[in-house]
Write a structure and sequence with these properties.
With 204 residues, the chain is of the alpha/beta class. The N terminus is likely disordered.
């Protein structure tokens, strides 16, 4: 025991299960497995984030800590003009994300495996989406917020979800420290969706 969904190479026995969900009026199918976050279901926080987020056409999107892929794949299918990158430290999760992208016809997706932002180092995004690993500790999540700000274009957004009882309000305060604007986007089912927005460059 002691193995977490943010373990790099899970050793738990495989227990694949396919689920079908509806998100924003579209049907999706996802293969899940043991050793990956929210096996066998779409967790309520992830659903709330997907339903709440606005994704402008043509955006370059990052799904940070993608797990088996619901957030990034939903973004890609709902915004076919977007380019979506999905990253996770968990090798099993990355494999599932690639399979699920194909399963849902999301051709505008690229999955990269690695820790933190390393797989997309040097890249800038319009939108970073994340259901962060709260169990890894607040310090880790605060680092994710700080690093996301450095990987966003001017006017770019970090949108994340957290349980209200697991420090969501402290994450909102951190967003307000790091970004030029921060707000709560949606709340429900014991979760809160929050966003931080980077400052736009003046174009005079």
């Amino acid at each position: 025991m002691g193995e977490h969904y943010f373990t790099e190479a899970p050793t738990s026995a495989h227990a694949e299960k396919e689920i079908a969900v509806e998100l924003k009026g579209r049907r999706f199918r996802f293969v899940t497995d043991a050793g990956v976050f929210a096996r066998g279901k779409l967790d309520r926080g992830t659903r709330l984030l997907i339903e709440a987020v606005d994704i402008p056409e043509g955006s370059v999107v990052l799904d940070l800590g993608c797990g088996y892929g619901p957030i990034g794949i939903a973004a890609a299918v709902l915004c076919p003009t977007c380019r979506v990158y999905m990253i996770d430290v968990n090798e099993r999760a990355c494999g599932l994300a690639m399979r699920n992208a194909a399963l849902n016809g999301a051709a505008n997706v690229e999955v990269r495996c690695g820790a933190g932002f390393q797989p997309v180092e040097g890249m800038k995004f319009d939108l970073v989406l994340s259901n962060p690993p709260i169990r890894a500790g607040k310090r880790v999540v605060f680092e994710i917020i700080e690093e996301a700000a450095r990987h966003l274009k001017p006017g770019g957004r970090l949108v994340l979800v957290a349980r209200t009882k697991q420090g969501a309000k402290s994450l909102l305060r951190k967003l307000a420290e790091v970004f030029s604007a921060a707000r709560e986007v949606e709340k429900g089912s014991g979760y809160r969706v929050m966003e931080g927005i980077t400052e736009r460059m003046n174009r005079e």
